[in-house]
UniProtKB/TrEMBL annotation:
Belongs to the AB hydrolase superfamily. AB hydrolase 4 family. Coiled coil: none annotated. It comes from the Eukaryota. GO terms for molecular function: acetylesterase activity; monoacylglycerol lipase activity. The active site is at residues 203, 344, 370. One of its GO terms (biological process) is medium-chain fatty acid biosynthetic process. It comes from Postia placenta MAD-698-R-SB12. This is AB hydrolase-1 domain-containing protein. Residues 117-374 form the AB hydrolase-1 domain.
Length: 451
């Protein structure tokens, strides 16, 4: 009876917020536009500026569990909402790889000042700037202020081979490899030196963002981060995907099929490197009709999911241990908001304690699935994503009220045409051309969206 009462209670549907025992002290503006400052801890900062995190999220009645929420994120038609268009730029990395940066609003639509804040977005497993969850955030964030938006710039970092980005080296991407986002942020910061950069990652991209912020510490060029549906402990997730019949045959194989399709699409490019171990496993990988995710990671990701070292790994499980982000949460040194759902069928562990890190706030909803969070708009009756409300509030708060302190200033220089950070010569990038105009609602055919 008590369980039934709690289910119908408004408090039951409110997200659970987790903070360190002593949340980090932040310098903030005393009031909007003020030059005076005051001190607030992270919990006070969020309580004052992110009201959606303290109100109920009640899922649409016919999407009442994590499986249905996740399924709707994959099969739902979002082509007529949150339309976003981009200008594409290609970056070349030192190893010959290519990263695609999609920037919105396009220059032909609206020019922003160079100091306009920038939301740097990392997509999910085989996604890109076309994904509905990406557009759900960028549409309100990048809409002009006079039209009710925040007026920010959005830049999506499309991983190697994703969203139409060419594969120009025998290296892919993975949940643990951070050098591509590192050089992308380096390029963005150099291009817009007066802009605040705020990171947000979804699913696999959230894992990459978390690891990047942890590795950078006080050197991070991103002043804050937001991780949405981060997978955290890849070992535990893989075990559940392997050991449950439904999870193995639905989620694991769906993700592996997407990755297999992505590799097949770039097979001709990979065959230009016949001696590379990744190329040598292609015939076997592409010939199998039904792969599990761990089988794909065993054959491909552990070999070509990043630079050497640490790649290749002896097994997929060694890669999972290395790439997991839950164990590095304690090292983040910028304000960081994580949002997960309890009923996410893909994510098994939620490290809400965050290693006691005072810079981390962890919000957990009862429902929402993986990259879902669909609710019914009481005014229109249409299904909408609840997620955009707290995320937009967070992005607005860290841009408008947070005073950035304690950041280390890192110098850069150009060596042989590549932009590098002084003191680190192993990574760098250079712009190698434009990719034209990209319409965000035009998804990548042949791949399941929403993952």
């Amino acid at each position: 009876m008590d369980l039934i009462r709690s289910f119908f209670s408004a408090d039951y549907w409110k997200p659970n917020l987790h903070f360190a025992e002593s949340p980090a002290s932040l310098s903030v503006k005393s009031f909007p536009g003020s030059t005076e400052t005051s001190q607030e801890n992270l919990q006070e900062f969020i309580e004052a500026r992110c009201p959606s995190l303290f109100k109920q999220f009640c899922p649409t009645w016919w999407l009442f569990n994590g499986h249905l929420q996740t399924a709707y994120a994959v099969v739902g038609d979002f082509s007529k909402i949150d339309k976003v268009e981009y200008d594409r730029t290609f970056l070349r990395t030192l190893d010959g790889g290519t990263i695609g940066l999609d920037s919105t609003p396009p220059a032909a639509v609206r020019n922003l000042e160079d100091d306009a804040p920038i939301v740097v977005v990392l997509h999910g497993l085989t996604g890109g700037s076309h994904e509905s969850y990406v557009r759900a955030i960028l549409a309100p964030v990048c809409t002009p202020v006079e039209e009710g938006g925040l007026g920010y710039r959005g830049i999506v970092v499309n991983f190697r081979g994703c969203a139409g980005v060419p594969l120009s080296s025998p290296q892919l991407y993975s949940a643990g490899h951070t050098d591509d986002i590192r050089v992308a942020v380096l390029h963005i910061a150099k291009r817009y030196p007066n802009a605040r950069l705020i990171g947000i990652g979804f699913s696999l991209g959230a894992n990459v963002l978390t690891r990047y912020l942890a590795e950078e510490g006080t050197r991070s060029r991103l002043i804050a981060g937001c991780a949405v549906a981060c997978p955290w402990d890849l070992v535990m997730n893989a075990e559940q995907l392997e050991n449950r019949w439904f999870h193995r045959n639905v989620y694991s194989k769906a993700m592996a099929r997407n990755l297999q399709t992505l590799v097949r699409r770039h097979a001709a490019s990979l065959y230009k490197f016949p001696e590379h171990p990744l190329t040598q496993v292609l015939p076997e990988v592409l010939s199998v009709k039904s792969l599990a995710l761990s089988q794909f990671d065993k054959a491909v990701t552990r070999v070509g999911g990043g630079s050497s070292p640490p790649f290749p790994f002896p097994t997929a499980w060694d890669y999972y241990v290395w790439a997991s982000s839950h164990k590095v949460l304690a090292d983040i040194r910028v304000p960081f908001l994580a949002i997960n759902a309890e009923d996410d069928p893909i994510v098994q562990v939620l490290p809400v304690e965050a290693g006691g890190n005072p810079f981390v706030a962890f919000a957990v909803t009862k429902k929402g699935g993986h990259l879902g969070w669909f609710e019914t708009d009481e005014k229109t009756g249409y299904v909408r994503r609840w997620l955009k409300k707290p995320v937009v509030e967070w992005l607005k708060a860290v841009r408008e009220d947070l005073i950035v302190e304690g950041r280390q200033d890192m110098s850069t220089h150009v060596v042989d045409g590549f932009l590098k950070e002084v003191g680190r010569d192993d990574i760098g990038c250079k712009e190698v051309g434009k990719g034209g105009h990209v319409v965000g609602v035009e998804g990548e055919g042949g791949l399941l969206a929403g993952l």
